[in-house]
Amino acid sequence: MWLSNSSIGRKVVMSVTGIALVLFLTFHMSMNLVALFSEDAYNMVCEFLGANWYALVATVALAALFVIHIIYAFWLTMMNRNARGSERYAVTQKPKNVEWASQNMLVLGIIVILGLILHFANFWYKMQFAEIIGDHFLGEYGPTNGAAYIASTFSQPVYVIVYLIWLIALWFHLTHGFWSALQTLGWSNKIWFERWKLIGNVYSTLVVLGFAVVVVIYFFKSLCC
Amino acid sequence: MDKNISFTLKVWRQNGPKEKGHFDTFQMKDIPGDTSFLEMLDILNEQLIEEGKEPIVFDHDCREGICGMCSLYINGHPHGPATGATTCQIYMRRFNDGDTITVEPWRSAGFPVIKDLMVDRSAYDKIMQAGGYVSVRTGAPQDANAILIPKQNADEAMDAASCIGCGACVAACKNGSAMLFVSAKVSQLALLPQGRPEAARRAKAMLAKMDELGFGNCTNTRACEAECPKNISISNIARLNREFIKAKLKD
Amino acid sequence: MATIDSKIPEGPIAEKWTNYKAHQKLVNPANKRRLDIIVVGTGLAGASAAASLGEMGFKVFNFCIQDSPRRAHSIAAQGGINAAKNYQNDGDSIYRLFYDTVKGGDYRAREANVYRLAEVSNNIIDQCVAQGVPFAREYGGTLANRSFGGAQVSRTFYAKGQTGQQLLLGAYSALSHQVHAGTVKLYTRYEMEDIVIVDGRARGIIAKNLVTGKLERFAAHAVVIATGGYGNTYFLSTNAMACNCTAAMACYRKGAWFANPAYVQIHPTCIPVHGDKQSKLTLMSESLRNDGRIWVPKKIEDAKALQAGTKKGSDIPEEDRDYYLERRYPAFGNLVPRDVASRAAKERCDHGFGVNNTGLAVFLDFSESIERLGLDVVLQRYGNLFDMYEEITDVNPGELANEINGVKYYNPMMIYPAIHYTMGGIWVDYELQTSIKGLFAIGECNFSDHGANRLGASALMQGLADGYFVLPYTIQNYLADQITVPRFSTDLPEFAEAEKAVQDKIDHLMSIKGKKSVDSIHKELGRVMWEYVGMGRTAEGLKTGLAKLKEIRKEFETELFIPGSKEGLNVELDKAIRLNDFITMGELIAYDALNRNESCGGHFREEYQTEEGEAKRDDENFFYVACWEYQGSDDKAPVLYKEPLVYEAIKVQTRNYKS
Hints:
Largest sheet of chain C: 5 strands, parallel
Largest interface: B-C, 81 and 84 residues
Number of strands of chain C: 21
Structural class of chain C: alpha+beta
Low-confidence stretches of chain C: none
Oligomer: heterotrimer
Mean pLDDT of chain A: 94
CATH superfamily of chain A: Fumarate reductase/succinate dehydrogenase, transmembrane subunit
Strand content of chain C: 15-25%
Shape of chain C: globular
CATH class of the domain at 491-625 in chain C: Mainly Alpha
Shape of chain A: globular
Order of helices and strands of chain A: HHHHHHHHHH
Strand order of the largest sheet of chain C: 5-2-1-9-19
Distance between the termini of chain C: 44 Å
CATH class of chain A: Mainly Alpha
Strand content of chain A: under 5%
CATH architecture of chain A: Up-down Bundle
């Protein structure tokens, strides 16, 4: 199977799963923004995405994407380390034009995963998971009152800082991942390379800002009230 | 006028592929700025021979930047600090008095060290043999002008074809990937009508050989393009990806 | 005295090659599989021959000293390749290319060979295009051409300033294809040290594995050497560092004649020598002469100021500049052949008009063309060369440096002639077979097509012509009666003997244990060669040179020091083996130069010149190819045989580039 036994194939898997995850992030970010306008509406979305069959299928698919993306990332990194040989350079210098993110995608990815685990504990465990196992009181506000969880989590400065770090890592990860995915799929050339990079930067910034805005606003709200 | 400079030179010494390597340090005195980097090593080697020691082994040949024989990872850059130039085209005026200059071989599993700074790049030949050609017999093909090629395509093919096969892309890549090298050849021939009939087969065969020989997976860091002495663009890698994915989807 | 049969076919010149091919013997496909051919060298000639022979079905063993066939020095050729396509409709034809080449070679080439070269030149372009060589193109999609020295038509095909590279990569790809197909077996980092002769025929080689240091034996039905020229005899040359004449000398020592060694080409546009640590000279493409104008100051005081460093080239106004090529050769101007341009530069410098601190440089100036075409156009054409020049010399030729009376002056480049190519080589007949049966020589390694001087963009043409279109045919004429000869065993006593001789030589070199490095002795050799056997030669100087070469040989034999051991990789040992042969080669050049009491092409004897300083040929006494035979020892002078030149198609004249 060329998706596992050829280098381009493996990278195609990374790109496709990556792009799908970017789309998920876009959706998630849009959903979060709803909370800023109406907490009820947001909670309705939470309810809609509870333990229904379609939400579960989507969750499983999403989890699969994550797992594939992560497994491939570790696998590729391992292969690439082997390809590098046993001796390391004594002196290395990053050439101009080489983005820091591009050489540290795994590290960034690991930060993203750690953030994700925290995020699960803060939200998913108390909401969808609680619904799945039928224990509606895993979280203090019940499984569908998402807005309450947001408000309580981001009233704590530690979480705000940790989430913002997480989002910054995500931003770096996305800026490289975006054009890199399209490059891997072959949808690039000298002109489009520059365009994709710009589009990717703008897009990643919007997505990350969208997340950050919710964090920050809820934090200030907690200060005011 | 160029000034003379003195500096510390740290050079990797390694007796064989399996041997343990180490750095030797030399103090270089009053080297004229118009000496090329390799001539500077010549001077050092003459000194070593005078002292009855073994000279430093390094690959070099044409010394005008086209044969691709010279390598050397100088101060963290393949082919040294200049861009768009090979090691043999670097002159000492680029360095300053009192510098420490560290010289290492290409380090990659695909290019085992033979001795000191000399590495084995025969893997590139093997990749070429897997498909880096147009299968045409020597004989009497059609008149050269019977194949019209738009200037733009010809120029782009030429840019890709200017790869000298030195291996700097692999040396620069944190993944030890040979994608820039492979993609340059695949691109050159994919851009020309003569190469189209075999384009799919070529992309698959060359890539499979590259993978088989233990080169890494491209993660689009662009270090290869930045360090390539011939400024080969990663747009060629995009083209290779395209050719390869198309070929696989067709199968 | 041996009789020399150059095997030129009968018939009018335009039909000789066609007739030859129609009547030569061929080897049928089933028999080809049973015949082995060794090809030494993977440059344009070697790679194209190995690929073509493999494709025909022969079993080929191909050797190169570098780590890959693609590194052969053909790769460094910049300018282009000639062909008589007449795509520009400027009146070109096979005959005209043939005529220009013979004339450019100062009427010392073998007519029939040159005609064949011109004839197959067109096939080469077709072949290379079919392989995917990205030649420069016009907007309409057709191939572009440029003009070159020694011709009045635009017949040169090019791929940026990297034509040699692209053609070599084309041949290399064909070779790679055959390696993949299993017809060619490739041996990289191997150096041929000797040829093995069995019953008077070349049957194999002894090669040194440069990585393990071991000698290995290889047998075949025929041996082809394509190992390039001997320019590095002069130490400083435009050749690559590893270019050497060891394989050619091995053949010569085993009885192959060496023809016209004195014909050494000195290229006019190289960056001048700057110091004694220099390892090689860098060529600036001859194409620069299309738009660059060569000059020295008119006034000697200006020259003195330049030499002292008190003035710069751009300080000298137009009226005080002597565009000596345009002055002396109005019809060809800056585009005269290389030997003429080189000598004219030397003539000016000898008269004290040199423009750098050593007094050994002239200017190549783009001010006029930058003003006429605009800097953009000039940079488009020569930008990479300007960059290269700036990296080496720290001077940017595209930089406006001065303005005098409203005229803009840009930094001129400095250039000086340097050893570049060797027209002489192993003697071959029309079939490219040497005087040893079964031993063939192709490319720069043989002597055949360029006479006393090679025109620009003709070396690539000859290498590929020999490799793709000539040798693969003519070798069959030899192999046709070898089909009953079974494969050879390398256990034959001849192989053992040859290997022992090489081993003894290596042991001897290692045992000298003197104090001097190979390079230091090589540099001395180079100095003697340039001084006494260089651009301007005299009988007296040559005799002195020969005496000095004997001293160098003695020094080599007593003072040489090679560190390390003979086992494993030992670069110094390999260089020492080569230097041993360079010294012999140097003597051979001097002997030939001393014998040839005339000036022609790349061979200039100061006693034989016209009042205007032009080369004066002596067709009455020297209208022949000088073939030198080794006499069993480096201490003995070689013996000369003469192959008379017979011109049927061209009337021999004095070369004229003035009108």
